[in-house]
Every structure is written in C-alpha cells, then in structure tokens.
Write a structure and sequence with these properties.
The structure holds two protein chains of two kinds. Helix content of chain A is 30%, strand content 25%. In chain A, the strands form three sheets. In chain A, strands 6-9-8-7 form a four-stranded antiparallel sheet, covered by helices on one side. Chain A has a three-stranded antiparallel sheet with strand order 1-5-4, with helices on one face. In chain A, strands 2-3 form a two-stranded antiparallel sheet. Chain A is built from five helices and nine strands. The radius of gyration of chain A is 17 Å and the shape is globular. Among the domains of chain B are: 132 residues, 2-Layer Sandwich (GMP Synthetase, Chain A, domain 3), CATH 3.30.300; 208 residues, Alpha/Beta hydrolase fold, catalytic domain (Rossmann fold, 3-Layer(aba) Sandwich), CATH 3.40.50.1820. The termini of chain B are far apart. The relative contact order of chain B is 0.05. Classes of the chains: A alpha+beta, B alpha/beta. Chain A: Keywords: Transferase. Chain A: This is 4'-phosphopantetheinyl transferase superfamily protein. Chain A: InterPro entries: 4-PPantetheinyl_Trfase_dom, 4-PPantetheinyl_Trfase_dom_sf, P-Pant_transferase_sf.
Chain lengths: 224, 978
C-alpha cells in the first residue's frame, strides 16, 4: 500500500520559479474516495474512464482527479475548474501557459507530476521479475542490454525496470510515447539520476516494489 | 505362367471402345470422356470385353440416369464365385490361386483347381447347414485361405457374406452384425478374444447355427466344425446365376458417424468394377501375384479377392506386422508383383530408416499401391529411393462403392503426391459448395453419374431414407462421398482427407491435411489431429483444437507451442493456427486404422462418442477429454472470445496471455483492458515469435485493439518472407524504406513519425539469406524485395530510401526498376557508405586514410555488435550460423558481418533517378574521398549534411537516427521528398 501523499508544495502561480511537483496517488482507495474523485472529472474524462474494465476505471478516475487536485493547488482554483485537456495522443495538456503535467500508474500506485515552466514526463512501474525475454522485447538499446547482462542477477529487475521508467518518462515528456522507438532513447543502466537524450532524469521516491522516474527540461531547452 | 503382355490391357480395351464408338479414343483423357459421355456403350463393351460368364440379355445397360436409383444390367444373371473360379484360357488349373502366409509356420498354396474344389465342397457343407440363396452369413476369420473358401462358397449359393476380423471385440462386431440378421455364423473362435464368440452369438438371435473353423467345444447354439460338415457333405449344389444386383457382400461404413451403415453390395456391380480396376487400371494379369495388406474387416479384402477373376495369384497373411521388414520380406519371399499397403506402413518404414531394397530382393515387384489415408509427396520419393523404380499408385475410393474413384493407370505418368487417373466410367469431380466443378482446387469429391458398384441399399433402411441422406443430401443428383479431393485437368487427383474431418471455423473451411503436412516438419510431433470445437465462450462459434501426439521425451512447452503455431502460420496460413493446442497420448483410430476425427471432435466437445466400439482403443477418448479440459481452464481458454477470423483469434489469445485475462472483444482497447505500455512490448514480442510478424510499435499504438493488431499482423506478413509493412498509413504513392543489415525496420520509427508528408510509409524486410542459409548477393535481396513491393505498389514512380546496408538494397532496386522501364522518382541514401567493390584504388586509399576500417572492424565495433547477441532468443541460431560451424558461438555477429561482406561486395549499377545522400556529420571523415564512387553511379546526386554519427555499429556515439538527431534528418528528408 503506498503511503499517503506528501504535503503539497506551497501554492504558486505560473509566474513562480521553475520547478516540479510530484505526488503519489493511492489507487486502491475505497468507494467514497472514488465517488469524490469522479465528481471533479469532466464528461470526457468520465467517458474515457468508463471504457476501461473496473480496475482501469478506478485507476483512471483516481489518477485524473489527483492530477486535477495538484494543478488546482498550483492555480488556486477548484479541481473541477482546472482547464485540463488531452492531446490526440492522450498526453495531458494544461490550458495555462507555463504549466505541464504528466501522470502514470502501476498497480495500486499512481504518480502525478506538474511542471512549472518546464516540460515533464513521469513513469512508475512495479519492479518486474527478470527474464531473459526482456532482452528480446526490442526496447533496450544494445549498450543497455550489455550493461544489464553484466549486472548480478539480483540487480537486474530493478535496473531493467528503471531503464523502462526513464525511457517512458522521456518519451512522455517529449510527447511521443511509444509511437517512438524506445530503444533509441538510451539510458545509463544502474543510474538513478542523470541526462537521458538531453532530458534531466531522476527517481521519484516511491515505496519498495516500485520505481518511478521523472524527466524534466526547462521550457527554453525542451527538445521536442 | 503367362508373360505380361507388352501392351497394357487398357490399350486393347480402348480399341474395342473406339470401334464401338466409331471414333478414335487415343487422345489423353478421351477414353474417360467417352466412358462418362456414353455410359451404356462403355459398360456393355466392358462386360463383353472382360469375358466374364453371364447369361440373359445385356441390351438394357442402365434403367435410368440418376445415380441414386439407376440399376445396371437388369436382365443379366451371373454368379460371383463362378466368375472368380472358372477355368481361364491360358491359366492351367494347377496354377497357384491362393497362397496363405502365416507367422511362424510355412505357407500353404491352393491351385485354381484345388480352390474350385474346396469352394464346391464347402458350398455343399453350408447348404447342408441350412444356408440358402438370399440368406446372410457372418464370417469372422483372419485374412487366410479358409476365409476365402467360405466366402466364395456362400457366394456360390447366392448368400450374402459379411466379414470381420477376429481381433475385434464383441461390441464392435455386434455394432456391425446385429443389423445383418444372419442365419449362419462362421467363426474362427481360436483367433477371437476369450468370450467374444459367446457374446457375439448371444447378441445375434437370428443365428441358428455356428459353423466353427476351430476345434473348440460347441457354443450355446448348435455347433458344427466346418471340416466335419465338408466331410459329410454330398456333391456341390449348382452355382446358380442370379440377378446382377443380387446381394453379395454386406459392408459397413467406418462406423464413426453414428451406428455403422450396413450396405449391401451386389454381385454384378462388385465384380464388374473390380475386374475393371484390376485389368484396366492395375493391368493385373495371370502373371501377377497380388498381396494387399488388409484385414477381413476392410473392403480391400473384398477387392483383392476379385483378383482371382483375372487369374492372378493372391497372397494372404494372417500374422502380425512386427516391424518395417515384415511385409517387404513377405513380398520378396512370395514373388509378389503388386504390393498393396498404406501410407502408415510406408511411413513406418521411412521413420525406421529401413530400406527395403537394401535388405530384400524386390526385383519382381512392378507396382506398389497405397490407400486408406492421404499419401504424402515425400513418400513417393522414399519409394523411388528405397523400393525401386516402380510406380507408387495412390488409390482411393471407399467401402461405400467397394471400389475406387481415383487410382492408377498403366499409361499415365505418376505425379508425386497424386493418384494417376479417375476410374473409368465414373464421372468423378471436385465441386464447391454449390456443386460447381472446380479443377485444380480442393473440393468435395462427387460422382455425377450412375455406376454399377453403388450399394444396392442399406439394411434396416426400408424407405431408403438413410441411404439418400448418406450420399445425396448435399448435392442432389450426385453421389457425395465425403472426401476432399483436387483433380487436375490431366485427371490426376490428390485426396485431402475426409470432408467431415474438415474444420469449419466460423465458416472458414480448413482442410487439416495441410496442418499435418506442416507438422511433419516438427520432429517433436509424432502425429496430430485437428478438430473443431464449439467455442465455450461464444454460442454458435467454433474454434480449432489441435491434438498432438509427441515423440518420447518431447514436451509441449512454450517453445514447442510457439514453433508449432509459427510454422502453421508461415507454411499454411493464419487460419491453420489452432486456438487450443494439447498433447494427448493417442489419437482415435478405427479397427481399420482409419483416423476418426468425428470421435475426437465429440470428445473435445464433451459429447458422447456415437460409436466408441468402432475404435481400436476407446480409452484414448477419456485422455483427450481430460487434456482439453485441463488446457481449457487456463487463461488461454478465453482465446477464442469475440473473434471471428482465425488470425484475430490467435491475436486475441496472445492478448489474453499477456494481460492474464479473458473475455477480450475484438475492438477492446489495450489500455482499457488494463494493459500497460510495458505489456505492449511483451505482446509485440509474442506476436513476433508466435505469429512471425514484426508489428512496429507506432502501428500498434495507432490501433491498439485485437482487430487492429490482427490487421497489422496480416499486413506485416512474415519477416522471413520479406513482407511489406505499413509503417504509417497515408494517401498517394508510398515512401518505401528498406530494412537494415539486421533485417529490421524499427530503427526508422522516429523518422517515420516525423516525416512531413501525407504519403504512406512502407517498410520492406527482404530475406537476407537464401534457402541454404548463406547470404544472398545484394542484387538477389533487391530482386525479392522488388517482388514484394510490386505486389503492394504495382507501378511507379517509386520512392525508395534506406539506411546503410538498406540503402545498398534500395540502390540495387532502383537500378533494377529503371532497367525494367519503371520510373523511380527519388532514392534516399541515409549515410550509405560506398561499398569497397565500388571504389577505385585512389578511393580505397582515401578510405584507409580515413581510418574507416579502424572504426568498423575495431574490437570496439565488434563489441557493439555483440550487444545484439543477447537479443537473440535462445535456441534460434541464424541460418548462417548453422551453415558454418565455425561461427556457431556468435550467430548474430556472423549474420551481421556477412551482411556487411555482401554489402562490400556489391557493385552498384547506374541510377538515373535523383539521389539524395544524407551524410552524417560523424561520417564525413570516413567517406572523404570516396563519395566520387557514388557520383559515378548516380548522375543526379545531392549531398545533404545531417547531425549525428552513422550510429549503427560504432554506436557509442549518438547516431543520425537517434532521438536527438532524427528530427533534423526527418526535416531534411521531408524537404527532399517535396
């Protein structure tokens, strides 16, 4: 069970200095929380949530509501009033200049990220057991594959999962998602912080059993 | 012994027919055409030509033209036993008629004279036992001389005979004989199972007397030893000639489609058909010795019996087949000239690696006949190599007609895998569902005209309703046999199994023989049977279940499942990939060794099996039920849900496995089902491994539903086939990208996404290796790439581009297209360094100066290549590695370096199209002084600089196609396209 979300950063408008807010979201929340969350979603968001199976529906509602809540704190408005839309690709788009948002979920844990005058991408993933099949899935660059196979077996699950979350974070920040080849975004295996394909990448602290990565670039240096 | 005639008897008969018809019949197919166009003339000429003994009038050949009702020769009278045993001109009475071979004791032979005398004495004995004309007799005895004597004695008296093998159990025997209502049972109880005879007699209340071929104590009914009856009998009664359709045999269908049909065959039809087949199609003469491996429960027993009418010497055998050598030794020892066997026995020999010609003298064998199942092409090769240069004649017909629809011919050549000819006088055709004839394609086997060996009728079918339903319901006016066949224009035929074995998967008809042919290439699979199952999740839907019998030591693990599915998809079609694949210990076979798909189908559906007694080992059904039930409880059980076409079904099954959930609809969104992006990669890997299709991520992302993925798989084709992949849909002429030295397209993903064009983008993945696993030259790779491309884009102008090795292939394609007069609008070369073979000495020197080799062949470069090695699935060495043991350790590296070597050896031809050369910044030094080689080839060459390094092998530096630089490349590429 993920911990309760950390206290929100002090409210600040889009004029505030660049920075990133991340929050963890408990996606196992019960009926009341779900109903409250659903109340702040717009009809399109509700419709999209309803298309999913029950577990997917719950996740979408809670995650979207958490993203709205985080943006609401930034903007000082009610969550239901946040001008939040989606790109055709599904990436969240905030209708306020200087604000960017990203979110991710894996199992019962969600992460939302709000970027102030910077572009953000976040990805969380439950650490998956290692199998050699991973090497065959085509998303690891050759250098990453080699680095992974050099690692002791016990270190591979975390390292491989982090390679994934870093790539995903970058691809989501860039706005392509998996429409781009993830193997072309090369991470340094075993490193929680650094630069990946021009994006500053770091871990988001999450409970054991998960890895989350955040990719950030200031608006003026964002490579698209 | 009469020497074989120099010309086949068919030639003599053709002369008779030509005279009767008044036209020459020498052209190929002319005689068959005549035989079906003028049936009255044909059959009367045949009756006369055969010299068979008959009386009455042959003026009326045929009562009407309807195959269901027509009677042949209503005014002709004959006696089957007389026809077989009459003295024949040129065949002395001391010529051997029957040689009975036994296991463990010497063979014994009856001459024609002795056989005639024994049949006469036995007929007298049976008459004394109460057998009269029109009665029916059941005969359970092995394939031996005594059985022939009893059967012919009964026929001589005008009684009908129904035979069965002594190793059959009482339930199977009663399933047949209860309908016969026999007055007399002739049993070899010594050869039957303990208690079987008693149980049989108890179930046959009409039997008033048992005639024993054994010395066992009397049974519950009055019992006589045949030998005693014969000893006490008076002179043989007269062998009266009776009507043409007087009952001769009662035969049974295989018995897996409900209770066995008891069909009555008439004496005249049986005799005329058999003599026709033996003499005209088999060219059997008194010089021949025939051994057909059969039991008394199979129609081939009746068929071989009639060879006596020709004067041929018949060999019988009542022992077991203990190994591949058994029958070949029999054939050699007894001078058999025509040997009849089955695909199963030939396969047994082949699998055992036992070469008959190497062990026994087969010099007398002039023909090998095979029937009972589909005879495969490779078996023709095996016979040619291991038996000798004799025709392997695939013959096929059925109990129902006590003869053949397609069989041999002394004149037609043998084509691998095919029966040579249609039976004369039978208008045999393959038809589609509407009854329209199809030639050169698989259809339902029908006979469209009356033929004399049609059953007289069924027992216990007073109004003929069952008879009508059995053969005439599907295509009125035609005999529909229930076999699948393809007939070529030359009259040759190939059987494709029973049509009730045909799978109807949601309306798609699938002939299982193709599945079996493919599985032949999977050594772990010893045998298999594909059956359809009602889809448990979709009312009215069906799915395919494949039952596999594995060889000892093999296990149906994930790797084997994958191999099977993938082979079926690649070598047959996606429709041939089963929804459920289970290992079973045994397949249901009938007593005749015929496969019973029907029983298997009932078992997988959990239905009661209509006639389990007809099976050799009914216990296998329980194992099948259990295996299917066990497999059906896993997540893959949900595989078939919501899926109409087989590929969609296969894709849905993979979704179910990856997502660990069922109930997936064809239009469900991957994310809506809870699928994560990480799982997308697992899914696409499974698609690649199981379905053999490389679906690029962007393509999947564009339509993340089972239906969308199935479409993408269909469009992707097989990478091994060099299929055309739609990387991005669009309108107008496509932009075509050629795969790299690894045969991959993924590296283009970023470029494809960013191209500023509405045109579709296609990817080409030509096969880089030939059938022997060696790398093909660039020109050949280009040629097959072009073939694929032209299927997708039949005419130019073409737009081609490729990176590195792919650029060389694109160049060769351009040269070839232009040589063929097709315009090429543009050729894009993405850092395609000129091949060494294209460089002049000065350029070579410049290249060395640039240190290209140092980079490319350095240890660092090779290490980079080795990174790829870990990406190779275990147990999948590339063909190149298999061909060269020296590189086994590093198959992928070998593959790459060979692609490189092929590339370096390529000499590009002239290219007239405008060419844009995208020169990577990092390659500038390396190609300095060598771009002139490209200028020699391409008159219209523009060099465009792009940021980044070459990035393929020396990829420690950021490549031109990497996320960092691909935007610029895409921009300049798009500009060049316009």
């Amino acid at each position: 069970m993920p911990p309760t979300a950390p206290a929100p950063a002090p409210a600040a408008g889009p004029a505030a200095p660049p920075g990133v807010l991340t929050r963890l979201v408990d996606l196992a929340a019960g009926g009341d929380a779900l109903a409250r969350a659903a109340a702040v979603l717009d009809p399109a968001e509700l419709a999209r949530a309803r298309r999913g199976r029950p577990a997917v529906h719950r996740r979408r509602v809670l995650l979207r509501a958490a993203l709205r809540a985080a943006l609401a704190d930034e903007l000082g408005v009610a969550p239901g009033a946040v001008p939040l839309h989606a790109d055709p690709s599904g990436r969240p788009r905030v209708g306020v200049p200087g604000l960017d948002a990203s979110c991710s979920a894996s199992g019962a844990l969600g992460v939302v990220a709000v970027g102030r005058r910077c572009r953000v991408g976040v990805d969380v993933q439950a650490v998956a057991p290692w199998t050699d099949d991973v090497l065959d899935e085509g998303w690891l660059a050759r250098a990453e594959q080699e680095a992974l196979t050099r690692l002791p077996a016990g270190a591979r699950p975390l390292a491989a999962t982090r390679a994934w979350t870093q790539k995903e974070a970058v691809l989501k920040a860039r706005g392509t998602g998996l429409r781009a080849d993830p193997s072309a975004t090369v991470t340094v295996v075993g490193r929680a912080e650094g630069v990946v394909a021009g994006w500053t990448v770091r871990d988001v602290p999450v409970p054991d059993g998960w890895v989350a990565s955040l990719a950030v670039a200031r608006d003026e240096e964002t490579r698209r | 012994m009469t020497p074989a005639p120099a010309v086949p008897q068919l030639a003599a008969f053709r002369t008779w027919c030509a005279e009767a018809a008044g036209v020459p019949l020498d052209a190929p197919g002319a005689l068959h055409a005549f035989s079906v166009a003028q049936p009255r003339l044909f059959w009367r000429t045949l009756l006369e030509w055969t010299g068979l003994p008959w009386s009455g009038s042959a003026d009326v050949v045929l009562t009407d033209g309807d195959v269901r009702t027509a009677r042949f020769f209503p005014d002709v009278r004959l006696n089957y036993a007389e026809a077989l045993l009459r003295p024949l001109a040129g065949v002395p009475d001391d010529a051997p008629a029957v040689t009975a071979v036994h296991a463990g004791r010497p063979a014994d032979t009856l001459t024609r004279g002795q056989l005639r005398a024994e049949v006469g004495a036995t007929a007298a004995a049976l008459a004394d036992a109460g057998l009269r004309a029109g009665d029916r007799l059941v005969l359970v005895a092995p394939h031996a001389a005594g059985t022939i004597v009893v059967a012919l004695a009964a026929a001589a008296l005008g009684a009908a005979v129904s035979t069965a093998a002594p190793d059959m159990g009482a339930p199977a025997l009663l399933g047949r004989f209860a309908q016969v209502e026999p007055v007399l049972a002739v049993l070899d109880r010594a050869a039957m199972g303990a208690g079987t005879a008693d149980a049989l007699l108890a179930g046959l209340p009409t039997v008033c007397r048992l005639v024993a071929l054994d010395d066992l104590p009397p049974a519950a009914v009055p019992t006589d030893r045949l030998a005693d009856l014969v000893a006490a009998a008076g002179p043989s009664p007269e062998w009266e000639r009776r009507p043409f359709d007087h009952p001769l045999f009662v035969m049974f269908s295989s018995g897996t489609t409900g209770p066995p049909k008891a069909m009555v065959h008439g004496a005249g039809g049986t005799l005329l058909e058999h003599v026709k087949e033996h003499r005209l199609h088999g060219d059997l003469t008194p010089a021949d010795t025939l051994y057909f491996h059969t039991t008394t429960a199979w129609m081939m027993w009746n068929w071989q019996l009639s060879a006596l009418a020709v004067g041929a010497h018949v060999v019988t055998y009542d022992g077991p087949v203990t190994g591949p050598e058994t029958l070949w030794r029999l054939v050699a020892e007894h001078g058999v000239t025509v040997f009849g066997t089955s695909p199963a026995y030939l396969q047994l020999c082949q699998d055992a690696g036992w070469s008959p010609a190497a062990h026994v003298d087969l010099s007398r064998v002039r023909a090998v006949l095979s029937t009972g199942a589909v005879l495969h092409e490779w078996q023709f090769d095996w016979v040619a190599e291991h038996v000798g240069p004799v025709p392997l004649q695939s013959i096929s017909g059925g109990t129902d007609i006590i003869g053949c629809f397609v069989l041999g011919s002394p004149e037609a050549p043998v084509r691998r895998g095919r029966a040579q000819a249609r039976s004369l006088g039978l208008d045999v055709a393959a038809v589609d569902a509407d009854g329209t004839e199809v030639v050169g394609a698989v259809g339902e086997l029908v006979c469209r005209n009356p033929f004399p060996s049609r059953p007289v009728g069924f027992l216990r079918d007073p109004d003929g309703a069952r008879f009508c339903a059995a053969y005439f319901a599907e295509h009125p006016g035609m005999w529909t046999h229930g076999d699948l066949v393809d007939l070529d224009a030359d009259g040759s035929a190939r059987l494709h199994g029973r049509s009730d074995g045909v799978l109807n998967i949601d309306g798609v008809r699938i002939g299982p023989s193709e599945i079996y042919t493919v599985l032949r290439g999977v050594p772990e699979v010893a045998d298999a049977m594909a059956v359809e199952q009602r889809d448990p999740d979709r009312a009215g839907g069906t799915r395919m279940v494949l039952l596999a019998v594995l060889r000892d030591g093999a296990e149906l693990d994930e790797a084997l499942r994958r191999t099977i599915r993938r082979r079926l998809r690649e070598q047959a079609s996606p429709a041939h990939v089963p929804a459920l694949l289970v290992a079973v210990p045994e397949l249901p076979l009938t007593h005749n060794g015929k496969r019973s798909e029907r029983a298997a189908r009932d078992a997988v559906n959990g239905d009661p099996v209509a006639n389990a007694d007809a099976l050799r080992s009914p216990g296998c059904l329980e194992a099948i039920r259990a295996a299917v039930a066990a497999a059906g409880s896993g997540p893959a059980a949900a595989a078939g849900t919501g899926a109409g076409d087989p590929l969609l079904r296969a894709v849905t099954a993979l979704w179910a496995e990856v997502l660990g959930t069922g109930g997936i609809g064809p239009d469900d969104d991957f994310a809506d089902l809870g699928g994560t992006s990480r799982q997308v990669l697992s899914l696409l890997r499974r698609v690649r491994l199981d379905l053999g299709a490389d679906v690029p991520l962007p393509v999947f992302a564009g339509q993340p539903t089972p239906r969308g993925l199935a479409r993408a798989v269909a469009a992707a084709g097989s990478p091994a086939d060099g299929g055309v992949v739609t990387l991005r849909p669009g309108t107008g002429r496509p932009v075509v990208l050629v795969a790299d030295a690894w045969g991959q397209l993924n590296l283009y993903a970023g470029l494809v996404e960013r191209l500023a064009t509405d045109r579709p983008v296609l990817g080409l993945q030509p096969r880089l290796t030939g059938p022997d696993g060696t790398h093909a030259p660039i020109e050949e790779v280009a040629a097959q790439a072009l073939e694929r491309l032209r299927a997708a884009q039949p005419e130019g102008p073409y737009t081609l581009a490729g990176y590195s090795f792919g650029g060389l292939v694109a160049t060769a394609m351009t040269t070839a297209l232009e040589a063929a007069g097709e315009p090429v609008a543009w050729l894009g070369l993405l850092d395609v360094r000129p091949p060494r073979a294209a460089l002049d000495p000065g350029e070579l020197a410049a290249q060395r100066w640039a240190g290209r080799l140092r980079t490319l062949r350095s240890g660092r470069a090779l290490a980079a290549v080795r990174h790829r090695l870990v990406a190779v699935p275990a147990g999948a060495p590339s063909p190149a590695a298999a061909a060269d043991p020296g590189v086994r350790a590093d198959p992928e590296l070998a593959f790459f370096t060979r692609s490189e070597a092929v590339g370096e050896a390529f000499r590009p031809g002239a290219v007239a199209a405008p060419v844009t050369y995208f020169l990577a910044e990092g390659s500038r030094a390396a190609v300095r002084g060598t771009l002139t080689a490209w200028r020699r080839v391409a008159a219209d060459l523009t060099v465009v600089d792009v940021p980044g390094h070459h990035g393929d092998v020396d990829d420690d530096r950021v490549g031109m196609l990497s996320a960092q630089h691909v935007g610029t490349l895409a921009e300049r590429f798009s500009a060049a396209l316009r």
